[in-house]
């Protein structure tokens, strides 16, 4: 199992970013996927999750209405569209899939600062 995130960067408050996570080594379309984030000095927290077919999603209250999770199973890719970014969204963002255990990508840094 391999997960590779991309799309992070430095943006100003109010701007947008789209993160991508490409999965390989497993049947991507058969498993739910999740985005987590970890800010400096804080525990890793769940941001958003999506069902295997993409028909069901879940969001943390802190991002609801601003972030949108989606997936393209033909491309083995999950996305996180992040709008109206705030400084408190600054963190390393990880994608996750759970099979017999949790698998994680290497993370992508998102920094929101003026």
Supply the key terms.
114 residues; mainly beta; 52% strand; four-stranded antiparallel β-sheet; seven-stranded mixed β-sheet
General description of the model:
The protein has 114 residues and is an all-beta fold. Helix content is 0%, strand content 52%. The chain has strands at 2-6, 9-11, 17-24, 33-38, 45-50, 57-59, 67-72, 77-82, 91-98, 102-104, 108-112. The strands form 2 sheets. Strands 2, 4, 5, 6, 9, 10 and 11 form a 7-stranded mixed sheet that branches. A hairpin with a 6-residue loop joins strand 5 and strand 6 (57-59). The model has no long low-confidence stretch (mean pLDDT 97).
Write a compact overview of the structure shown.
With 114 residues, the protein is mainly beta. It has no helices and eleven strands.
Q: What is this structure's SSE topology?
A:
Blueprint lengths: L1 E5 L2 E3 L5 E8 L8 E6 L6 E6 L6 E3 L7 E6 L4 E6 L8 E8 L3 E3 L3 E5 L2
Parallel strand pairs: 2-11
Antiparallel strand pairs: 1-3, 3-8, 4-5, 4-9, 5-6, 7-8, 9-10, 9-11
Low-confidence stretches: none
CA(first)-CA(last) distance:
37 Å
Shape: globular
Largest sheet: 7 strands, mixed
Mean pLDDT: 97
Structural class of the secondary structure composition?
mainly beta
Number of helix segments?
Answer: 0
Helix content bin = under 10%
Q: What is the element string, with H for helices and E for strands?
A: EEEEEEEEEEE
How many distinct beta strands? 11
Radius of gyration: 13 Å
Strand content: over 45%
């Amino acid at each position: 199992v391999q997960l590779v995130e991309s799309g992070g960067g430095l943006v100003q408050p109010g701007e947008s970013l789209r993160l991508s996570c490409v999965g390989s080594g497993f049947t991507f379309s058969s498993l739910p996927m999740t985005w987590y984030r970890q800010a400096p000095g804080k525990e890793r927290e769940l941001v958003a999750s999506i069902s295997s077919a993409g028909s069901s999603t879940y969001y943390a209250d802190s991002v609801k209405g601003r972030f949108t999770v989606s997936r393209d199973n033909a491309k083995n890719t999950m996305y996180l569209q992040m709008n109206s970014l705030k400084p408190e969204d600054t963190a390393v963002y990880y994608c996750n899939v759970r099979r017999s255990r949790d698998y994680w990508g290497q993370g992508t840094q998102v920094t929101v600062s003026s």
